[in-house]
């Protein structure tokens, strides 16, 4: 994402006026030094990253269990909703990585098309994909449930 941010700064600085050219490489600000304010935290960076991803995964799994267990009509057992939860989690992680890589290469297009609304449009696109993945996980659970119920109802 640093590469994408550099491109956005380059495009913003290419405008007219007092700050014209401020984003060009010859006038670029020096990059911030990592851990400049708290160098004693540098050895703990891996631990913080592990816990950050671990906590985010736990919160997402809890949200998925709540959404898949109590939002549909009727009572669902954990075994019945597990395929949708796993597929939703995996697709969400895959889409997040893919969208991050896409933004690293092509974020400048959002700035060109949407100008000051680029950040809002990027967030809306990510939320659109996330919502689609959540709906797909629920639809997968519904399809599996229908297949299990259909043979039991056959004469």
Summarize the helices and strands and which ones pair or pack.
Elements: H1 2-13, H2 45-70, H3 78-114, H4 118-153
Helix pairs in contact: 1-3, 2-3, 3-4
Provide a short characterization of the protein structure:
With 155 residues, this protein is an all-alpha fold. It is built from 4 helices and no strands.
Outline the structure in words:
The chain is mainly α and 155 residues long. Helix 2 packs across helix 3. The N and C termini lie far apart (58 Å). It is built from 4 helices and no strands. Helix content is 72%, strand content 0%.
* Amino-to-carboxy terminus distance: 58 Å
Question: Strand-and-helix sequence, N→C?
Answer: HHHH
User: What composes the largest sheet?
Assistant: none
Strand content: under 5%
Number of contiguous helices: 4
Q: What global shape is seen?
A: flat
**Can you tell me the residue ranges where pLDDT is under 50 for at least 5 consecutive residues?**
14-24
DSSP strand tally: 0
Q: Return the average pLDDT rounded to an integer.
A: 79
Features:
155 residues; mainly alpha
């Amino acid at each position: 994402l640093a590469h994408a941010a550099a491109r956005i700064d380059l495009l913003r600085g290419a405008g007219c006026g007092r700050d014209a050219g401020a984003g060009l490489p010859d006038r670029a600000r020096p990059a911030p030094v990592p851990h400049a304010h708290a160098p004693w935290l540098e050895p703990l960076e891996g631990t913080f990253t592990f816990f950050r991803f671990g906590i985010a995964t736990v919160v997402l799994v809890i949200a998925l269990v709540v959404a898949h267990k109590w939002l549909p009509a009727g009572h669902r057992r954990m075994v019945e909703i597990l395929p949708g939860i796993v597929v939703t989690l995996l697709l969400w992680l895959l889409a997040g990585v893919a969208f991050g890589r896409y933004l690293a290469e092509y974020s400048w297009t959002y700035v060109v098309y949407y100008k000051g609304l680029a950040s809002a449009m990027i967030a809306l696109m990510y939320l659109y994909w996330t919502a689609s993945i959540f709906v797909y996980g629920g639809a997968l659970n519904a399809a599996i449930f229908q297949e299990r119920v259909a043979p039991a109802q056959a004469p």
